[in-house]
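Loading example: each entry is read as four labelled lines plus one structure line.
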Amino acid sequence: MPKVGILGATGYTAYELIRILLRNPEVEIVAATTRQDGNPPIHEIHPSLYGRLDLACENLTAEEVGQRCDYVFCALPHVASMTAIPDLLAAGTKVVDLSADYRLNDPAVYEKWYGHVHTDPTRLGDTVYGLPELYRDRIPGKDLVANPGCYTSTSILALAPLVKQSLIEPTGILIDAKSGVSGAGRSPKLGTLFSECNESLSAYGVGTHRHQPEIEQVLTDVGEEAVQVTFTPHLIPMDRGILCTIYPQLKESTSQEALLDLYREFYADCPFVRIVEHLPRTKDVAQTNYIDITVRFNRDQLIVLAALDNLIKGASGVAVQNFNLLAGFDETTALLV
Amino acid sequence: MPKVGILGATGYTAYELIRILLRNPEVEIVAATTRQDGNPPIHEIHPSLYGRLDLACENLTAEEVGQRCDYVFCALPHVASMTAIPDLLAAGTKVVDLSADYRLNDPAVYEKWYGHVHTDPTRLGDTVYGLPELYRDRIPGKDLVANPGCYTSTSILALAPLVKQSLIEPTGILIDAKSGVSGAGRSPKLGTLFSECNESLSAYGVGTHRHQPEIEQVLTDVGEEAVQVTFTPHLIPMDRGILCTIYPQLKESTSQEALLDLYREFYADCPFVRIVEHLPRTKDVAQTNYIDITVRFNRDQLIVLAALDNLIKGASGVAVQNFNLLAGFDETTALLV
Amino acid sequence: MPKVGILGATGYTAYELIRILLRNPEVEIVAATTRQDGNPPIHEIHPSLYGRLDLACENLTAEEVGQRCDYVFCALPHVASMTAIPDLLAAGTKVVDLSADYRLNDPAVYEKWYGHVHTDPTRLGDTVYGLPELYRDRIPGKDLVANPGCYTSTSILALAPLVKQSLIEPTGILIDAKSGVSGAGRSPKLGTLFSECNESLSAYGVGTHRHQPEIEQVLTDVGEEAVQVTFTPHLIPMDRGILCTIYPQLKESTSQEALLDLYREFYADCPFVRIVEHLPRTKDVAQTNYIDITVRFNRDQLIVLAALDNLIKGASGVAVQNFNLLAGFDETTALLV
Amino acid sequence: MPKVGILGATGYTAYELIRILLRNPEVEIVAATTRQDGNPPIHEIHPSLYGRLDLACENLTAEEVGQRCDYVFCALPHVASMTAIPDLLAAGTKVVDLSADYRLNDPAVYEKWYGHVHTDPTRLGDTVYGLPELYRDRIPGKDLVANPGCYTSTSILALAPLVKQSLIEPTGILIDAKSGVSGAGRSPKLGTLFSECNESLSAYGVGTHRHQPEIEQVLTDVGEEAVQVTFTPHLIPMDRGILCTIYPQLKESTSQEALLDLYREFYADCPFVRIVEHLPRTKDVAQTNYIDITVRFNRDQLIVLAALDNLIKGASGVAVQNFNLLAGFDETTALLV
């Protein structure tokens, strides 16, 4: 029975990880870390786990976690992640990293967008990007999986079939993205207070959001030509959910039905991608590992719409998909509820 | 002291009209209509007016309302509006129509998008479009003002300076629009139930929303060349507010500062248009008649962002602006709170 | 493998039933009814079930459903339920009724509170009240289980240990109850529109809510003396969740710790009752079948607080608990996620 | 024209104060303080004030503010307030203090509930409690007004007519109180993050909330016998609004209509108290200075329900009522919108 640990157990993605892993009776959660002292039981930090998991949150080093676990989910912020992961790997554990530290291949791009010199650059290009729908075959056997960002999963899965088939112009792709507030994390900040977000709506990070280079890197890899997107995120007064409304320019005219068929074929082997005819709602994928995708036309303008739960398919659900592939479980284990 | 009436007093826009008009001590509200029987006091329909307005809602004909009032706000649904308005005008009253019935100039376009033959087509092209920021000089002296749609005001005001100066391509303008739920009205429908909307987010009316031809008609008038937009509305889990994120294609490169200056100059005489440097939030314009607009670049892609309160600047606030111009009040009367 | 059907499949409780039952691979859902024509697939009514359940919603009679199924969940409104259930039972199926029709023992009380003559009165007193924490032993072998109301489960479970031990005065018990909007169902009504509920809070049904006699009947049964409560429900701007804040009068003084011990012992065999030290939050039980209960003192005044998810533990979760007991599954099957 | 300042201008109550004061053309706002450096314009802190108020937020001492202003609203936290106010008063300004520092008469009670020794105890019992509905005559001419707490205003106004007439038992009064999140202030804290509050509901501060002694002190003063209440606050997932559901024990039986008449008479001269027949909703008083109160019976149990906007009638609106009385304006100036 694999022993599993979570580095950085106080946030929302850590909580969702635990909730999902508890559904797999063949997994044992043996470590959860926090910088708080006093070894608080996990239910003091996540009260909904009361009576469900008997585990203390400990202030452990990466090395200690690595020695105790076969697999570790690293839910630390960026920078903290690339500090801990070499120690985890040295201890012989396998790692799914939910931070951004190993997603970008080029340390210069990392430095430009994250404002930090990458301290583990040799591992960068070598790490698999953990989007099983695109890279399933490369994941088993790896030591380190870079779990994708929430906006990036949504955008990439919505565009990959078009980019792969070279049906759209590789530049000038407009992604108007909307996310619930949980995507901003659990650290108290003015901008994520209830009274700031509720009954409010705004764009943020226009032109500066770090998921833009990640989307471009992966879609460039998929399409084998340089992809450029304009990514505009918005904060929506809801807890969870992402909807991306995407406006690509088709090279040649086609039909909604032909495109839906293309998508269905592209994702035929992907149990968590649903190509739907109706307009996706975040509510329909909330608390699930599904992403719902459809396409529409307004005159000749193609519009691709995709929705997922940012904490599940956008973070902890796909992390468990990756873990399942690493640990030899069926890809859907604990993820179909 | 002008006597004012409201045709269709049970909805949200009627409530906001009353709330605003009560701030003008030189206006007397003398009629409010409903199809309900029993002449319920207005506070049974809008409890927040308890003790503020002593008025019964009556099941009056348009003719009766016209005889009692100098000015009438018509807050009926489309089709009902164009049935009532000829009678109101025949009775000698002046009308601000909040429905869509007199916004489009071409009865064929009306029929195509609204699915009804227009029954008052001769008045169509002759009616002033009640967006004071563009047509202020044409409003005084008119008998009938077609109050703009909420999405359309936002989109038009966000684009007019660029279109007027011919700085952007007239076609291929993408408008990704987001609205709170009150825009859908107060009639009970499955789609606007709390438990359907809350914690949910989706696009709707993709390619079919009736504000698209209205935006195109007005911007074509502003720019004197045919404008085409792709308008994609989304329903946001909040009560009130609209944010439009707009992606036009610039003909020549320019800077954010140059564009902000252009906007400031264009709207120099408009007390309710605020050209801001920060990203607009709907919360900052809620309960006000302001529209906040800014521009941003992501690489070379221009992005225009605009926010207003759909029930105030998007409906009842601009209706009172129009009324003020018709009745000889200062344009801002009762609207700066 | 038991064949299961759902009478009245369009509401929220029906959706939750399906979602829970899909987790039990040894159950087959073979019928779902609607009054809509055209046999719409279930995912047209509940889009989140897309790809998860291949079933049409049919306009079937109770008799037809009864012939097709071994077990039926009746999710019809009251009155409709007592019309259908005799036919279901005559067809030899076992029924969990989620309506109120078989909860009250006395047809006169039913008529007083529901305003209808009960048409199946002989079955009333004979039906088991489906609260497994109190009546687990009586459920197996029954043909008909009356599933409890959401407020009533919360209130009864919060008070049963005190009433059973006769620690509190049987009258003058104040229950200040708060519920999310989904408890009001999925039929469009003015009062449950997003724009009415959001950013609003009010009491409703003061002195007239139908769960009051149900709470009193069951607690009277538990305590063997006549219990009277003052039940005051409030509508909270959230989708799901109930919190009851209860003020009983203790007969003799005691301590918080002694009472928590009493509760822990009383519910020792109940996997879904969690006696917690912290103040319960609805968020911590959302999407689960748990009820969290604690007690507090303010000077000498005892306060009991209890929270559950009104659609799960308050409706469909306990319905599946009851089904599990009827069908011979472990009580927790499909309910621990 | 009186010169007005705000000490502690970054919070929600300060923002509401400014919004209200801007409606009075005979008031000049000349100072707003912050501990932030750089003298940010007020619209950087409250973007909705963009273009409405040309004022920098300065890091001023209380003395400097006192010298510049005739009237100061002190919107600092407790402790900070009692440090600043002696300097303000020494400079000859009049002060409305929105903190709790001068509400309680007894420094020992203050120390017990707030955990700080009061540093200005001689002024305590001498300060007027700024609830104009009870103490209107004592306010004009005062130097310092202690503005009431939000829960306390609601509770006191709901109970004062009963206590004054000695119609209810003075002890055992249960106040089940519910508040929106803005009542918790604008400082980032885990418990007020959107993702913690949204879709959640819980009690907090049971037995320990500081408004309990304040309610008891004022009602004891009103009734001239010692009043004791059990005050239980709850956090509601909405921005603004308080509803108190209050369960007193009547000494003699009476009727709903007799009580409503008593309330109407008691508050006959109070323009912001509305005695209504329907159940109060926070939405109906949002953005206003009204408090809506009604009474109901459930069998013989009296229930008093009262709703107000915690930021307006519960804080900044009543503060301006007090200011109006101090400065010689009509009590309703700027408050009826």
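Chain A has a mean pLDDT of 97.
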